[in-house]
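Why does residue order matter? Because the sequence determines the fold. Keep that principle in mind as you read this record.
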Amino acid sequence: MTRDRLSQIETSLHRLYKQLAQKQKALDVAEMADKERIRQQIEFLKQDEISPLEAEHREILKQASEQLQI
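Structure:
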């Protein structure tokens, strides 16, 4: 179960990191009027999608590490 969830999280994070990179590239070439919208999308992606998955990923790794030490 934990291994499956870890794999799911890593797949999702990989996809989200690619999406974030694309948005950051879009921000570099966007017209001034579009920059704020793209910045908001980047912030949403980081706060609401990436951060919770990163936290869960760290927690799973921490638990797995603790089990190995016991």
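The chain is about 95% helix and 0% strand.
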